[in-house]
Design goal:
about 500 residues, alpha/beta, Ferritin, Rossmann fold, nine-stranded mixed β-sheet, two-stranded antiparallel sheet, about 15% strand, globular
Length: about 500
């Protein structure tokens, strides 16, 4: 969590942009992202150089001794944040505008790459040298503060705080999946080095970044000491689609900053015929937009065959089943209505999951998880695409706490079910003896079918009533009379004092 001091520094940086004439919140975030990306490139390059030196491997810096910028050749060293941030304001502005920004726009040699495509129309909008100097100084102070906190996730916290300042409702809301929930879902799925991972509504690529970080932490030697697996990780493992070019740019930069050279990040309406991907992915991680309604004419016909509806939350579930290869797995966030909705479309998609595929888990989350941005109740569905059934028992978990208060402040608290959720899910054999009164339990497929494919945890959990014994009525009346006598005595004493 970021501190109040750090929030104040970010607010001050935001104020610099506003007073400088950049008032569109998305433009502010985009320009900040460019500069943070430039700063992180320098740090990443230095880190990779150190790692290569430790391993005794040669390393070629992305900056190099000389860099070609258009028709000019410039010293690579002065493109580094750690160098140009000490330049006078005028020189810094010239270097950043004419050299550093063109450098990052053309950083990826493959003009067909996601990064190249979405950086092509990127614009450096900071208007004056003085403003850039102020912004760079403010960012230096923010990074220095982050370093003091010694929290590996603090950069993500800062970025989340920046996104939270985009007050626009609607489409911007889909960008904001809490990172601890993303991390939980990744840990539940435990991706392997041969995965082909997709988020069909990727936003800033949070799920893809988290999956990459999980693999680095848990399968590092297996991936990075194997040439084929490393090439797969860098070029073929990660796929993300979105319909907002700004988010695609941010997502591509986010992935590159986290060490993925060539992710597939594409502009695509995932629900339309524009998306040809079928039986392609081994893992889907997603929090698709929901509570929306689409024109049936723009929805892919094969999705409507599976689930005839205009509701995006149901159509995305149908899409995941189509995009997964046989044996592919999915963890996705859905609104509670998907779990118990009574319409034909709701029942059809649940029947499809239970009867024709393998539904593994339903994790019910408290409504405060997405506050202060939304108060909707949600759950996590985990399933495997089989095409021929396989559901035996479904694991239900009633999440009551996620490590933060469930009000708008979302302050850290001690209560946190997430470690327990991950541990129990990876040991489902130990769940067989749990009673329905406990926080998690298994439900047989037959019982779910009998209940009309209802996946609401409240349908299956049992409340344990503890009998409370009260004293006899006569005893209560006696106590009341004693109390009344004491009150009367006290009143008489007071009257005697007047």
């Amino acid at each position: 969590m970021i501190t109040g001091e750090l929030k104040n520094k970010i607010n001050a940086l935001w104020e610099i942009f506003w007073t400088g004439g950049i008032t569109n919140p998305l433009d502010v975030v985009e320009q900040m992202t460019y500069l943070m990306f430039i700063h992180d490139l320098d740090e990443t390059d230095n880190l990779r150089a150190k790692e290569s030196a430790m391993l005794g491997l040669p390393y070629k810096s992305m900056f190099g001794e000389e860099v070609q910028i258009g028709e000019r050749t410039v010293p690579g060293n002065q493109l580094k944040w750690s160098v140009f941030h000490d330049f006078p304001a005028g020189k810094m502005y010239t270097v950043v505008q004419e050299q550093v920004f063109p450098f990052i726009k053309n950083l990826h040699g493959d003009k067909g790459s996601a990064y190249a495509k979405y950086m092509d129309d990127a614009i450096f909008k900071i208007p004056t040298p003085l403003m850039l100097d102020k912004v760079v100084t403010a960012l230096d102070e923010i990074y220095a503060q982050m370093a003091q906190l010694r929290d590996g996730d603090v950069r993500g916290d800062v970025y989340e705080f920046l996104l939270s300042k985009i007050a626009t409702a609607g489409v911007n809301g889909q960008f904001r999946t809490p990172r601890h929930i993303i991390k939980m879902m990744v840990e539940l799925m435990a991706p392997g080095p041969d995965e082909v991972i997709c988020d069909p509504a990727c936003g800033t690529s949070g799920f893809l970044v988290a999956a990459g970080e999980y693999l680095k932490a848990n399968r590092k030697e297996e991936i990075f000491f194997n040439r084929e697996k490393k090439a797969h990780y860098m070029n073929a493992m990660f796929h993300g689609f979105d319909m907002d070019r700004t988010m695609l740019r941010i997502g591509a930069m986010n992935m590159m900053t986290h060490g993925v050279d060539n992710p597939t990040i594409e502009y695509r309406d995932s629900l339309s015929d524009q998306n040809p991907d079928r039986e392609k992915y081994s893992l889907i991680l997603a929090n698709p937009p929901f509570k929306g309604s689409l024109d049936a004419d723009i929805v892919s016909a094969d999705l409507l065959k599976l689930c005839k509806t205009k509701k995006t939350e149901l159509l995305f579930l149908a899409l995941f089943l189509k995009m997964l290869k046989v044996g592919g797995r999915c963890a996705c966030i859905v609104p509670d209505g998907v779990l118990f909705g009574s319409s034909k479309a709701h029942r059809d998609i649940r029947r499809e999951l239970v009867d024709n595929h393998r539904l593994e888990a339903v994790i019910s989350m408290p409504s405060g998880v997405f506050k202060p941005y939304a108060g909707v109740s949600t759950g996590v569905l985990i399933f495997t695409d089989t095409g021929h059934g396989g559901t035996d028992k479904v694991w239900f978990y009633d999440m009551r706490a996620d490590g933060f208060s469930l009000d708008d402040k979302r302050s850290p608290v001690a209560e946190n079910d997430i470690p327990d959720i991950v541990a129990r899910f990876h040991d489902l054999a130990g769940e067989t003896a749990r009673a329905r009164t406990e926080q998690s339990f298994l439900v047989p497929k037959g019982e779910i079918v009998e209940n009309g494919y209802d996946l609401s945890i409240n349908k299956y959990k049992k409340t344990e009533y503890v009998p409370v014994e009260y004293p006899p009525t006569s005893e209560i009346f006696a106590q009341l009379r004693e109390l009344e006598a004491e009150i009367q005595k006290g009143l008489e004493e007071l009257e005697g004092m007047v």
